[in-house]
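re: ur msg from earlier - yeah i can do the zinc ion complex, just paste it... oh wait u already did. ok heres what im feeding in:
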Amino acid sequence: MKSVNRILEPGQLEAPAGEIPFLFLPGKDLFARRAERFRQLSAGHALGGYLSFLALLADAQQEALIDFPLLPLPTLAEQALSRANGMPLLAAGSWSRNRAWRGALTKILLQMGKAALPPATTDTVAGLLRASETRLEEIADRIVSGDLDRVSPQELPFIAAALQVYWVHLASSLEATAFGRLGEGGACPVCGSTPNVGMVHSRGAGQGLRYLCCALCSSQWHLVRIKCSSCASTHGINHYIQEGSNSAIKAESCDDCNSYLKLLYLEKDPGMEAIADDVATLALDMLMDEEGKVRGGPNLLFHPGSSSVGVGKLQASSRK
Ligand SMILES: [Zn+2]
Ligand SMILES: [Zn+2]
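and the outut:
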């Protein structure tokens, strides 16, 4: 007989796979919570101006999500087929995007156009409002296929923000049971994208368990701990923290494929948010860059290239 009241502590053996909620879909208030977290993190932060900008962008995303038109969703037969084949139901790379995502983009751009932005950013907003449908779709194709090096860093956050709204709208309109596990644990079961971080939950059914957070649709799916999300290796896994931090965020690296993914331990700071806390800990990315490690998945709102953002020299050290 199984005890339903069993409490899992971090580091203890995890429950059998059947008892673990494998997927948490994003809620309709996702971007409001993200905006609030960006605002909290911006105070006294070296990247405060940029975090405040992303708070405004998340506000605009929330408004676009609330106003999003109802779209046809995958049928029950399509849902069953994708589950049977272990394929993401709303695969970003192959899903036929509805033009409604560009409606969300226009709303976001118009709202951001009202804010007091630096002149270069105002020019970017105006340029995107004039851009042709063909050009916008080309940029979107590059983003959903992970080809971020070929996207202008100035345009990326706006286009990515609208694509996030679109996929969050779809994901939050379905039930978790619509989706099945993929053979590959490192890809999002909803849209097939890579995670930007992982989170170790501190309460509820996922307590003590690690969930990967989708960079595009913000769904969270379970992956056992101490396992590389990029290559599935379970050995040569090391953890790095930034000196002086409260170790709420660690970078988990893999010797086999040389990648790393940040892990957010909600027990240490329940207010953390996958996208906001990722951007705010760019210093940890710079530390990992110095270690020769590469990110396992991008943050679509911020893709600086290799160490190109001047945040000052880090006072960081690694601990394995
Ligand atoms: Zn996803
Ligand atoms: Zn690996």
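cool cool. Confidence is low (pLDDT under 50) at residues 1-13, 306-320. ping me if u need the other ligands too
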